[in-house]
């Protein structure tokens, strides 16, 4: 059987990009959501959770409108950077970030809330700045939440289908991810090919979840 | 002689009941002040205001020639810019750091860290993590860490509340010794009249945020006299 590895490489690249970008983007958001008492917080928080309940095709449709060359974000990107978003790898990274946002955000928010406020107060009274406190006290004490966010986000992203198909289509080596390859194999009645792609995806997801459970158990014993 | 002066006002809430913290006092640097009062009388808030962890509504805090807070001018130094050490009720030791790591985090200096661990008799447990320590050992580590920055003001928020009676007494004596050796100005919050009488030079009694009694500790009754641990230095 001739197994095309390109969809795996695209999925892996997509998973890594989305996970790293969301880790950087969600930490400040999680901090604000966990610590702020503003009335606007529940409104914005609900908005960021929307991808959890929204159909991926609906999400993909609106993202396509937004990222298409005539859409507000697509035209802005093109005029500033001469970069097209629809049907490109950059486009599916943005789509992946939107659809996986709640997975990273909720894990990090839980992590920030799990660090007792008196540890922060203690660090401040020892002369440490907020940034140093975050780097040396908060982050080391929310490791299991960070791992949970990373594993969930990565696993969700490499399994994404609807939203990626809507924004990226199926361009081999660019936007064709494993889940789209599975769909195409099934559509062409190549069930053994679909089994191989799906089996590898199941295995990768299982290893991720296993890793997460082991780390969380170890943290709980500490 | 340098003085520590505070005059702090802040609206507080205890359940549905609103009241005002309104406390003013002046003590000499190097003194050991005790603040006692019932739960919810504003003791901890007063300490937090002094540390800069909580902003008062009005008033002022001065330590020697430094102004840490002035409601009139809007000056409010954050805790990082106040020379304070704070021992929290729950000790607030960093769980991912060893005893040495906790103190080193404050000092940034190996020799100073070892000196403080010896002062608090925690040098033999330097490599232990907080989860491996007893309540008394945690308390001593917290004191060592709070002294790490050579603070002008050491604030202790019910540091013995989680300990049994014997341990409270021995650690109280130890705290007395450390304060005497370092000559740091210390403010101890406790609801234990006996503890404060035994350790402190001066006492404030708070009730619903107001000072209802203040002065040298032996003004507060006969139980204070003859109970003080001997000064070793």
Please outline the helices and strands.
The complex is a heterodimer of chains A (222) and B (233).
Chain A: H1 6-35, H2 41-53, H3 56-67, H4 72-81, H5 89-114, H6 117-125, H7 130-138, H8 143-158, H9 162-168, H10 178-187, H11 191-221
Helix pairs in contact in A: 1-5, 1-8, 1-10, 2-5, 3-9, 5-8, 5-9, 6-7, 8-11, 10-11
Chain B: E1 3-14, E2 17-28, E3 32-37, H1 43-51, E4 58-63, E5 66-70, E6 75-76, E7 84-87, H2 99-107, H3 110-119, H4 135-146, E8 153-157, H5 165-182, E9 185-189, H6 193-199, E10 202-207, E11 210-216
Task: Describe the structure in your own words.
The complex is a heterodimer of chains A (about 220) and B (about 230). By secondary structure, chain A is mainly alpha-helical. Chain A has helices at about 5-35, 40-55, 55-65, 70-80, 90-115, 115-125, 130-140, 145-160, 160-170, 180-185, 190-220. In chain A, helix 1 (about 5-35) packs across helix 10 (about 180-185). In chain B, helix 2 (about 100-105) packs across helix 3, helix 2 runs parallel beside helix 4 (about 135-145) and helix 4 packs parallel to helix 5 (about 165-180). In chain B, a hairpin with a 4-residue loop joins strand 5 (about 65-70) and strand 6. A six-stranded mixed sheet of chain B has the order 7-8-9-3-10-11, with helices on both faces. In chain B, strands 2-1-4-5-6 form a five-stranded antiparallel sheet, covered by helices on one side. The two termini of chain B are about 20 Å apart. The longest helix of chain B is centred in the C-terminal third of the chain and has 18 residues, at about 165-180. Chain B has helices at about 45-50, 100-105, 110-120, 135-145, 165-180, 195-200; strands spanning about 5-15, 15-30, 30-35, 60-65, 65-70, 75, 85, 155, 185-190, 200-205, 210-215. Chain B has six helices and eleven strands. Classes of the chains: A mainly alpha (about 220), B alpha/beta (about 230). Chains A and B meet through helix 6 of A and strand 7 of B.
């Amino acid at each position: 059987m001739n197994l095309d590895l390109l969809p795996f490489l695209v999925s892996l690249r997509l998973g890594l990009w989305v996970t790293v970008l969301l880790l950087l983007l969600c930490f400040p958001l999680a901090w604000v959501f966990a610590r702020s008492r503003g009335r606007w917080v529940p409104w914005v928080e609900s908005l960021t959770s929307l991808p959890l309940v929204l159909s991926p095709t609906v999400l993909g449709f609106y993202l396509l409108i937004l990222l298409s060359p005539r859409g507000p974000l697509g035209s802005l990107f093109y005029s500033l950077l001469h970069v097209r978003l629809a049907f490109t790898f950059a486009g599916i990274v943005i789509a992946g970030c939107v659809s996986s946002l709640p997975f990273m955000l909720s894990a990090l928010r839980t992590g920030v809330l799990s660090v007792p406020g008196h540890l922060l107060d203690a660090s401040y009274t020892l002369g440490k700045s907020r940034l140093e406190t975050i780097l040396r006290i908060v982050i080391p004490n929310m490791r299991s939440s960070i791992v949970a966010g990373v594993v969930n986000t990565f696993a969700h992203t490499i399994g994404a289908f609807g939203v990626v198909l809507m924004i990226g289509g199926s361009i081999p080596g660019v936007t064709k991810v494993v889940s789209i390859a599975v769909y195409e194999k099934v559509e062409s009645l190549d069930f053994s090919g679909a089994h191989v792609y799906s089996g590898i995806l199941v295995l990768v997801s299982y290893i991720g979840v296993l890793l997460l459970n082991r780390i969380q158990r170890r943290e709980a014993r500490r | 002689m340098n003085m520590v002066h505070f005059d702090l006002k802040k609206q507080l809430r205890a359940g549905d009941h609103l009241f005002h913290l309104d406390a003013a006092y002046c003590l000499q640097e190097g003194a050991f002040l005790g603040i006692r009062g019932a739960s919810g009388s504003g003791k901890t808030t007063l300490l937090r205001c002094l540390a800069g962890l909580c902003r008062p509504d009005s008033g002022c805090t001065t330590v020697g020639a430094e102004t840490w807070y002035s409601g009139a001018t809007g000056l409010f130094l954050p805790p990082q810019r106040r020379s304070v050490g704070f021992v929290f009720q729950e000790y607030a030791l960093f769980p991912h750091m060893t005893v040495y790591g906790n103190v080193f985090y404050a000092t940034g200096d190996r020799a100073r860290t070892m000196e403080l661990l010896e002062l608090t008799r925690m040098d033999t447990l330097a490599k232990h993590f907080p989860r491996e320590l007893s309540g008394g050992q945690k308390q001593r580590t917290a004191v060592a860490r709070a002294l790490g920055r050579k603070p002008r003001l050491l604030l202790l928020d019910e540091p013995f509340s989680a300990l049994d009676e014997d341990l409270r007494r021995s650690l109280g004596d130890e705290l007395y010794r450390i304060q005497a050796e370092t000559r740091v100005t210390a403010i101890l919050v406790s609801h234990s009249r006996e503890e404060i009488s035994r350790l402190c030079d001066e006492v404030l009694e708070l009730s619903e945020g107001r000072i209802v009694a203040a002065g040298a500790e032996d003004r507060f009754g006969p139980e204070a006299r003859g109970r003080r641990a001997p000064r070793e230095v």
